[in-house]
Design brief:
Helix content of chain B: 40-55%
CATH topology of chain A: Cytochrome C Oxidase, Chain A
Strand order of the largest sheet of chain B: 3-2-1-5-8
Distance between the termini of chain A: 31 Å
Mean pLDDT of chain A: 91
Oligomer: heterodimer
Low-confidence stretches of chain B: none
CATH class of chain A: Mainly Alpha
Number of strands of chain B: 10
Helix content of chain A: 55-70%
Number of helices of chain A: 19
Number of domains of chain A: 1
Shape of chain A: globular
Shape of chain B: elongated
Radius of gyration of chain A: 23 Å
Order of helices and strands of chain B: HHHHEEEEEEEEEEH
Strand content of chain B: 15-25%
Mean pLDDT of chain B: 90
Largest sheet of chain A: none
Structural class of chain B: alpha+beta
Number of strands of chain A: 0
Distance between the termini of chain B: 79 Å
Order of helices and strands of chain A: HHHHHHHHHHHHHHHHHHH
Structural class of chain A: mainly alpha
Number of helices of chain B: 5
């Protein structure tokens, strides 16, 4: 609250500060560092198993189970740690300042959320360390990031140690995120300055609220189903064991009830970031503030009703039509957002700085993956693509293209805010160039493999036997293509590290002076604040203060 | 590096996702599929929907790229008046909604027939045509086909006659698997404790197709393959007889 401004006087300094901090910006910085660290670790795993796919059989240094473990750890780390950590990072860094509060509603719970989250991550990764560094026999979890039961929960399948550590680690990490979500919602509604109405908030604040609300509801089934998994694996519960009267699809329903909203949970904050970046770097007010926010809310509501489109081939014949209908309403929400973005940039004076370029990349990749998504949303085509590399290509467009590129846009835009330093523009552009040039080419190789009928999570491959089916050379060609571009994409990410190192002492006070002068933003310029809508900006240039939030 | 050159490189990079998108989706026009109704339905739906996606998605990707490149050489932004382009926005949303309705309608036909038992009219058109009845049992890491009609016991290769309906009863004895033939457009999960019924019509011509497992099932997942051999009807009848079963077509349908 506003009366507590002096309570940070006994803040510890040096390394101890990072272990005891309850400051929202420090917690945000911890989340950000953790996210970037695991982005590189999980990315490295992808490079390793992609190299093993250069040959049709297994290479001498990796077997099928280890391949599955690497794929699982890559996917689950990227989703549960990197993407989820990214939303907490920006939520903590920005939310209080965006709504004119000094601090989060529960600063201690905020610190707690990070420490539970990071403990969960470490637990999840311990089997990686014990297997590949200490050489212990037990493998890390190898059941895919979706961890379908009964493969994951049956006591006689997969490694007991790896599975337990994975279930417990991920469940803990998501309990951490749940705590954070409670905090975000409470902060947004209770700590907001009274003069700021809901439709006076920056879109970024809206996007954090929407994320937190959906996460708070749908992380619960995930945590529940993982606890049920641990009970089945260790104590003989038969929840998901179909041969003993359990119900394997119960797992899938609970998992995807979380799993589909999750895709949007990790995306909203960066759609919010796009709405902050695009108007400022094109010197045009945000076209359709309300349309943008309604688009976010619409997707948030509908995303909770689409989960079974991941299960079209499980024999749920009768309900496929319903889930196709709900799935195909999602593009309407995105249409509002995309229209708003293009209408904002249209005829603007565009500054091609790194945040703007990453935002453009994110929007382009989202458009692409949206087209894929419509195809996967109709069961007729899903029959063809379900569980093939085409799906892998699709969610990499969404999650790497949409989420991670949006994350990078946010990282570069708020880098001066978070660190007090200015990044190097040239290195930033090189990072962007590598990312946007090579990410589509990498995922294109996957799309070709999937269109040719190669199923995902295949450690080895052979020719397909059918008239006109691809030969093993064709499959190897596209695998090699994908691997080469993946390595280039991975190399390009090192420019982010280079940028951080090069600009370590490049302090800055007023990084986006001109842009923020034109369109102030509360995290940089404080209150009073009006969203940069056409009517607000028109009123500002007239010198009149009597404006409505209406666009 | 001059600013012109820099801008040129940025423009080229921005076009990469669009070009890749066109190559990815345009691929559909160069594919041919076997003469089997299921995959024909899928392919026809795909061609229509991909065409819509190429036009719609391609246009909007182009607009994003164009607005960036064009805007980067502008020195003064044009202001937006409050309430500008409202009609355009409404029209745009209506068009997107309409396209989604079209997608639903296009899919509804396929959805009503794919994987389901043929309507009695189709099954009895002309004369009653026999259908194959096969239980598919998946286990780590193989497929077993228990023929019920013709009653010839368990096999590890799925032999089927050309142009005939097949009724699969798919299940598993350990973990989730998924019975899939990409070339024929078949995919149905094998789930322990549950039997999934799935119908499809075999291609009109003989050929050998691959059955793969499409759900991660452990270390042997990528090795879990079987063959689906489409035989001429007469040959299949003979084969069934050799195996001690009986599967005959009425004379008018090329039977013996």
């Amino acid at each position: 609250m506003a009366t507590q401004t002096a309570t940070h006087s006994h803040k510890p300094t040096g390394w101890r500060r990072w272990f005891v901090t309850t400051d929202h910006k420090d917690v945000g910085r911890l989340y950000l560092a953790w996210t970037v660290l695991f982005f590189f670790l999980a990315g490295l795993l992808a490079m390793i198993f992609r190299v093993s796919l250069l040959t049709p059989g297994m290479p001498g240094w990796l077997n099928e189970s280890e391949y599955n473990a690497l794929v699982t750890m890559h996917g689950s780390t990227m989703i549960f740690i990197v993407a989820m950590g990214a939303i907490s990072a920006f939520g903590n860094l920005l939310l209080p300042k965006l709504i004119g509060a000094d601090e989060m509603a529960y600063p201690r719970a905020n610190a707690l959320s990070f420490w539970i989250f990071s403990t969960g991550t470490v637990i999840m990764w311990i089997p990686m360390f014990t297997h590949w560094v200490l050489g212990m026999q037990q493998l890390p979890f190898a059941g895919g990031w979706t961890a379908y039961a009964p493969l994951s929960t049956s006591p006689d399948q997969l490694s007991l140690f790896g599975t337990n550590m994975w279930f417990i680690g991920v469940a803990l990490a998501e309990i951490g995120t749940t705590v954070g979500s409670v905090n975000f919602l409470t902060t947004a509604f209770n700590e907001r300055v009274p003069e700021m109405g809901l439709f006076d908030m920056p879109v970024m604040a809206w996007s954090i609220i929407v994320t937190a609300a959906v996460a708070l509801i749908w992380l619960v089934p995930l945590i529940v189903v993982f606890v049920m998994g641990v009970m089945s694996k260790n104590y003989g519960f038969i929840f998901f064991d179909g041969t003993k009267g359990g119900w394997p699809l119960l797992y899938q329903h609970l998992f995807w009830a979380f799993g589909h909203p999750e895709v949007y949970i990790v995306l909203y904050p960066f759609l919010g970031a796009v709405a902050e970046i695009v108007p400022r770097f094109s010197h045009r007010p945000l076209y359709g503030y309300r349309a943008y926010v309604f688009g976010l809310i619409f997707i948030a509501v509908m995303s909770q009703l689409v989960w079974a489109h991941h299960m079209f081939t499980t024999g749920i014949m009768g309900v496929r039509f319903f889930f196709m209908l709900t799935t195909l309403t999602i593009p309407i929400g995105f249409a509002m957002i995309i229209f708003s973005v293009i209408a904002t940039i249209w005829k603007g004076r565009v500054e091609l700085r790194t945040p703007m370029l990453f935002a453009a990349g994110s929007v382009l990749m989202l458009l692409y993956s949206g087209m894929d998504g419509i195809m996967l949303g109709t069961p007729v085509l899903d029959t063809q693509y379900q569980a093939t590399y085409w799906v892998v290509s699709h969610f990499h467009y969404t999650l790497f293209g949409g989420v991670i590129m949006g994350f990078f846009a946010a990282v570069y835009y708020w880098y001066p805010y978070a660190t007090g330093r200015m990044y190097n523009e040239f290195l930033g552009k090189v990072h962007w160039g590598f990312t946007l040039a090579f990410a589509p080419l990498t995922f294109f190789g996957m799309a070709k493999l999937g269109a040719d009928g190669l199923n995902r999570r295949y450690a080895t491959y052979t020719a397909m036997s059918a008239p006109g089916a691809p030969t093993v050379q064709t499959i190897q060609f596209w695998h090699t293509w994908t691997t080469i571009f993946a390595l280039l994409l991975g190399f390009g990410q090192l420019f982010l590290v280079a940028n951080i190192i090069v600009t370590w002492s490049n302090t800055v006070d007023d990084p986006w002076a001109e842009l923020l002068d034109e369109m102030p933003s509360p995290e940089w310029t404080g209150l009073p604040y009006r969203p940069p809508t056409p009517s607000n900006l028109a009123a500002r240039s007239d010198g009149s203060e009597e404006v409505s939030a209406d666009d | 590096m001059t600013s012109r050159l820099r801008k040129g490189i940025i423009g080229l990079v921005l076009f990469v996702p669009l070009l890749v998108f066109l190559a990815d989706f345009g691929d559909i026009y160069f594919r041919s599929v076997p003469d089997a109704p299921q995959i024909q339905t899928i392919h026809a739906t795909k061609v229509t929907l991909f065409t819509i996606a190429i036009i719609g998605g391609g246009t909007f990707m182009f607009l994003v790229i164009y607005s960036h490149i064009r805007g980067s050489s502008r020195t003064v932004p044009e202001p937006i008046k409050p309430g500008e382009h409202r009609t355009l926005f409404g029209v745009f949303l209506s068009v997107v909604t309409l396209l989604m309705v079209v997608t639903v309608l296009l899919s509804a036909g396929g959805l009503a027939t794919m994987g389901r038992a043929p309507s009695t009219d189709a099954a009895t058109a002309g004369q009653a045509s026999p259908h194959l009845d096969v239980q598919v049992v998946a286990h780590q890491w193989a497929w077993k086909f228990n023929y019920r009609n013709p009653n010839v016991g368990g096999k590890y290769t799925l032999r089927v006659p050309a142009g005939t309906y097949v009724h699969l009863h798919v299940t598993s004895t350990d973990v989730d698997h998924s019975f899939s033939s990409q070339e024929l457009g078949i995919k149905i999960d094998a789930i322990p404790g549950q039997t999934n019924d799935y119908w499809f019509k075999t291609p009109a011509n003989k050929g050998t197709y691959q059955i793969n497992c499409a759900e991660l099932c452990g270390a042997g997942h990528s090795h879990m393959k079987a063959q689906l051999i489409v035989m001429p009807r007469k040959k299949f009848t003979q084969w069934a007889k050799q195996q001690g079963g009986n599967f005959t077509y009425p004379n008018s349908q090329g039977g013996s």
